[in-house]
Amino acid sequence: MENNTYAHIIWDWNGTLLDDLKLCLKIINNMLDKNCLPPVSRADYLEVFGFPVRDYYQKIGFTFDEEPFEVISTEFITSYEKGRPNCPLMPGTRETLEFLSITGYTQSILSASKQAYLNKAVLDYGIEDHFISINGLDNHHAAGKFDLAKVFMASQDLNPNSVLLIGDTLHDAEIAASLRVDCWLIPNGHQSRLRLESAGLPILDSLTELANHIQ
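Now predict its structure.
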């Protein structure tokens, strides 16, 4: 797991640095109830959530027959943005970002969130100074971030061997593979440990373990 040649850390946002699982569960179950669909438990959510989120919505019961995906997605994100300021950062986030900055690593965020929402969130938590780049999508439908990741890597002229991506989903592992960078996963966000272990990548129990493994 240890690699002393890393120079840059790419962070996922939702479920990795931001602890928003409870909010997401609350909103999606309210929406399911409104549509006379059965609720999803935390355990089931961790087994079905993924990207693109359109597929995840279908797995939990939405058919898009009466309301298109875009309408349902907008309803979710509207409620999410109202509740997001009450979400805490993951335990150890501030200390970990500070440690990496002090020890010479550059850092960035790569998220499937809409850019404007992502910028506001990072500013709200007062951690923007740790990142050389904050990268989100131009919409809120969370289709994925493959193209975004490639544009970022090209713009920074980063050597893939010097980059480590840290996330909480198999999509993060797929992104890392497409960029040919290393990836570590933390099972405290939107997918279960069992699913993450299927990727065959290093697993950290929490952000607080990062300093011990990277340095």
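The mean pLDDT is 92.
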